[in-house]
Amino acid sequence: MIRYVLAFVASFIALPALAEVDIEEITTPGGIDAWLVEDHTNPFVALELRFRGGASLDPEGQRGVTNLMVGLLEEGAGDMDSRAFARATEELAASFRYDLSDDTVSVSARFLTENRDEAVALLRASLIDPAFDQPSIDRVREQVNSVIRSNQTDPRRIAGRNLDELVYGNHPYGSSLNGTLDSVAELTRDDIVAAHKAALARDRLYVSAVGDITVEELTALLDELLLDLPAEGAPLPGQAELNLPGGVQVVEFDTPQSVANFAQPGIKRDDPDFFAAYVLNYILGGGSFESRLMQEVREKRGLTYGVYSYLADRDAAVIWMGSVASSNERVGEAIEVIRAEWAKISEDGVTAEELADAKTYLTGAYPLRFDGNAPIANIAVNMQMEELPTDYISNRNEMVNAVTLEDVNRVAKELLSPDKLTFVVVGKPEGVMSTIN
Hints:
2 domains; Cytochrome Bc1 Complex, Chain A, domain 1; six-stranded mixed β-sheet; alpha+beta; 16 helices; single chain
């Protein structure tokens, strides 16, 4: 077992240089497309599977069913119960992780070369033949209910949920992927089986592998692992109609500190101005202590421990988001400072020094993401989903450096919309009134 642990740890040693990430595109005889980065330094493979659709595929009235289904994938397969499955995984020194977002079901597998066949067989069983036995359903359902109850008392979760409801309305994005206590209570095994067929299908599959495996080995592995999945899943949801009227919605909650989430329309990842907006966001609210919002809201006025913004590019919607927390007495001031800085940077733009500093950080930090097989596999599969070319990794910093001051300031004027900046405040904010019904 010691040699297993040492090999597993060694697999996370950083690769020598970013430029050496050489991605090969393959298609198996069964028609499965994948990206491969061969690295035979250590006897270890990281495999990433993504299924587009995620929790957005929940049928009407069954919110939370995909989440419950994904939570059950590691709770037994074939004739193995949850304990037997966990024991088999541990004995192989393998690692499987099953995650869910509104847009994706994610499956991450890590296994040693010497145990590859056995590990893949075990992973296959969890994907093709999950047990979905009633004791596991009841246990995972209660775990989900515990999360739902906890979120009902968390101001940050409440703010996020209410902003989603306001912005996305009846679209699946407008409700929690966990579902509600009522909706989860009604879910049956048949519902879970149907959700499995709807979400884990080959027509929405993306695959990447990094590590000690050849093209021929990966080709055979993927067909064995995935060809018995359904060919087609449930239809993907349509685009969300955004409701960003500007103003404030207050949600009363008994807490000494209010949480304010805010949003305005965003920009698509494939927009020619995306990198200008990306750099702009770093300067505005993405750059930790160096950002404009942190300087104005925290450093100069002491209104918060932290404030940030980010570009949220989802399959069915794009928005520009942010969050701040402040005492009930001062959250109104924090909101006004954010609005003022939003308007100021829109009107006056950024400085050449701010742009240079942003480029230095963004290009310098990028290679640090590629610190092992698993992170590279994760990046590669996300690149596929974003329809980026295989040479994006080597060209990305050039695209950041190509952004000019004129680009950033033009995009700031065109995209930043202080009049559409919409806040949801959870707490007992003094002097802050709802202007949104």
